[in-house]
Amino acid sequence: MQAVLDLPIVATPREGDLAGLADVLAQSLPTGSGVVVCWSDPRIGVGMSAVEGVPAALRAHALALTGGEAHAGDGAAIDEAWSSGGASLAIAARLPEPLTPASLDAWRALARRVVTATLSAAQGEARIASLQKSERLQQALYEIADVAGSGLDMQDVLARIHGVVGGLMSAENFYIVLYDDVRETVRFLYFADQRDPWVAEPDTEIALSDIPNSLTVAMLRHGQPLLGPSARIRRQLNVDRDQFHGPDSADWLGVPMRRDSRVSGAIVVQSYDKPDCYSDEDRVLLEFVAQHILTALDRKHAHAELERRVDARTRELQRANQVLQAEIVERQRAERLQRALFRISELSVTAGSVERFYADLHAVVGELLYARNFYIAMVSADGKHIEFPYSVDERDVVRRRRRMTKGLSEYVIEHGRALLADRARIAELEASGELRHHGSLAYCWLGVPLSRDGVVVGVIAVQSYSPDIGFSGRDQGLLTFVADHIGGALARKRTQEHLKAAHAELESRVEARTRELESANRELRAQVGERLRAEERLIHQARHDHLTGLPNRTYLLESLDTAVAETRSQARGPFAVLFLDLDRFKLVNDSVGHAAGDEMLVEAGRRIGSMLRDGDVVARLGGDEFAVLLADAADGDVAQGVAARILAALGEPMWIAGRELFPSASVGIALWQPRYRHGEDLLRDADAAMYRAKARGRDRSELFDENMRAEATRLLDLEADLRRAILTDAFEPYFQPIVDLSNGEVVGHEALLRWNHEQRGPLQPSEFIGVGEDSGLIEQVDWLLYRRVFEWMTRVQRGHVSINVSPRHFHSENFAERLLQMLDDAGADPARLRIEITEVALLDDAPRALRMLNSLRERGVLALLDDFGTGFSALSYLHRFPIHALKIDQSFVAGLDGEMHPESLALVRAILVLARTLGIQTVGEGVETTAQAQTLKQLGCTYGQGYLFGRPLPAPATGHRPR
């Protein structure tokens, strides 16, 4: 036996020397010792190091030691097992001669340190390799995303993707194929191969029937990744060998690309001369990268399609712009013409001389076409002469009256149609003897007839003495159109001249008639006085309430506007407005009649007026509403004091229709502030304060403050935002799953309204539903939401979807028809739709609600009663209406595992018994804990909904995501 170790322990092995651990340890033991080292680590796996020639039994024994802790040995047989850094380690040694106890302990300690240090180094190296691999993968994904968003064409993008994949594994032979499982075709987008000379055409579709022995097609139909020699994979998938598809591969790896759980393509890499070139790790890596490549391809295709559509749209807009420019030119021309016609019509009725009228006509024509040389020719009364009442010409300064001959003007009058002639045309007409030119010869002449009652009575003409200026057929049409109106204007102007003469004669007659009327006027004055008194009575009636005799709203608003103006000019002090509304006045009308109600209003007006001072105004605004203008109210204390006196006076007993009544009122107060510009503003704010008083218990007063104003402003802004959101369709359905409590399976979803506010982000209905209901906008919002939901139903063909229907929809006779038509337009199955309604919708107009629900049920749309248990919960309407399911309100469900457990349990049990009796299904709302779900299930509730099963999301999951 050796007293000490003969050989020292050598330096700690490097991290790559795990296989030599046993030999290193054996160097410190007697010659002939057998040593086995075993390890099991989640990062580097299970391994063993043994001295050459160690028996198999010792190897098995050492491997068994890694399952626990061991520390045993008699000096010649050493067993050691321990754990370090998440790894299990073991040493089994058999010595030809035993060691001393001291040497044994020293060797054990040193052996543990050596093995532990070597394993730690190997673990570090494994972590570094893993991080490097993750870094390469991350960089590859970045490069794929960058390439997809670049401006490269598709083949360059695919070549770059090939390079990225080649950086992760051996990919000299690489191709990408797209698969259409509906058309049963494939397209090879990219193909790179060292031995196969085939050239892929990315736009060519290849029918699967044309390549029955393709290994790629077999994998697409198989739908799972495949790894190994191509010959073995063909045998596995029963694919015959076909030389058309290229040589066999020593190692072949193909992974499918999936879109919405459907195989849409594949990526394949292969090696012709290296067996076992690819591992399962490469397979997992390529699967991961493949989905990102598919996303990149989709983005690239979408970008290309977008560019194509943009180009097409740009061309359309260019064409539309050309048409628009032509329309603009035509519109401008029409506007100029319209203005000219207006001017002509205006000139015909404007006082002034005929000469001035002609000059103004010349100016109007000059705005439409070249009219530097312009004249008007008229046939004389005897028809034998032609006269020129107006003429402006560069060369023929004066045109004198002449006998009718064969001039250009006479030619137009004789033929009754316009003439557009240049010098050649004029010469041609002169040569034929049809006309004889008078005056200076023009380069271009245009004349159109002036008509009266269908007879040509004159000519309007323009002419040019410059060869650079001519007239066109368009000018002829324009001047002809204007001439038609000028003819009428001339007739009106002549009539006006005749009227002037008649007017002078009329004036003399008027003087005589005036004297006659003076006597009659004296008689009428007496009648006028009586009429003025009647008008005063009517004005009083128009400004006062006919029932109480008090001023009405019109009178009050005039007084308020006067008070605002005087206060702003500091002609008077501050004032206040009180808005009063009698509490529960409708009950008086309904119980003792409207006559008694009128009597109460008269007495209330009298009592209010008795509490006021001189200068104050009390008015009845209508119904049971009164308002008071306090002429002197320096602060809120004064106004509230007056309001308290009025409430005290109104609260005294009042005998009406033989009954003693104790009326009360709610009062809102608005004090003068410099921001007010109109009396209506103070009345509005006082009205808002009155509603605050009613909300806080009635028979009290409330002072309008900035909080109320801010709230009113917020609601006003929110309503404006809501209207803009409707125009931009800024609403989105969020879907919350509904599950079967018996097995947890999702059977449907509830579509919940969310508003994507441009500044505040997604808003829940509770934040804006009140404004929507008050303004009536909620119906438009609902229809926008329904359209989005139905479109989603056509994409996700699984489970039912429920939508919330406001009671306002049941006021519309065509709600059911419109809803069904929207379903049909979207192509959605009505049998998958559920509508959630409240008890109010059923009871508000029961016959109409019953008709609508029956119409919907005939098409498969079922009704769910929402928030059951919080309203009337009457058996009568459950029995009468076709209710498919009750939704138990979340307030009861929340109490199943809280302080209200006994009460909630009893209520939920009663609801479930009622539902089972009527054959109605049940859904528990607001399930947030497992205890709540178990209790509902035990009580017999069919379905559950709540945060326990899933929060509302923009779109629910449609299946398992492919790995």
State the low-pLDDT regions, or none. 1-16, 957-963
Can you count the helices? 26
User: What Rg do the Cα atoms give?
Assistant: 50 Å
**Largest sheet: spatial strand order:** 25-26-28-29-30-31-32-33
Query: Which percent range fits the helix content?
Result: 40-55%
Secondary-structure class: alpha+beta
Integer average pLDDT? 83
What portion of the residues fall into strands of 2 or more residues? 15-25%
Ends apart, CA distance between termini: 61 Å
Number of extended strands = 33
Biggest sheet record: 8 strands, mixed, barrel
The gross shape turns out to be flat
Structure explained in plain terms:
- This protein has 26 helices and 33 strands.
- It has 963 residues and is α+β, with helices and mostly antiparallel strands.
- Helix 3 (101-148) runs antiparallel to helix 4 (154-166) and helix 3 runs parallel beside helix 7 (280-349).
- Strand 16 and strand 17 (455-464) form a beta hairpin.
- The strands form 6 sheets. Strands 25-26-28-29-30-31-32-33 form an 8-stranded mixed beta barrel, surrounded by 5 helices. Strands 8-7-6-11-10-9 form a 6-stranded antiparallel β-sheet, sandwiched between helices.
List keywords for this structure.
963 residues, alpha+beta, eight-stranded mixed barrel
Could you give a short description of this structure?
The protein is of the alpha+beta class and 963 residues long. It is built from 26 helices and 33 strands. It has an 8-stranded mixed β-barrel with strand order 25-26-28-29-30-31-32-33, surrounded by 5 helices. Strands 8-7-6-11-10-9 form a 6-stranded antiparallel sheet, with helices on both faces. Strands 14-13-12-17-16-15 form a 6-stranded antiparallel sheet, with helices on both faces.
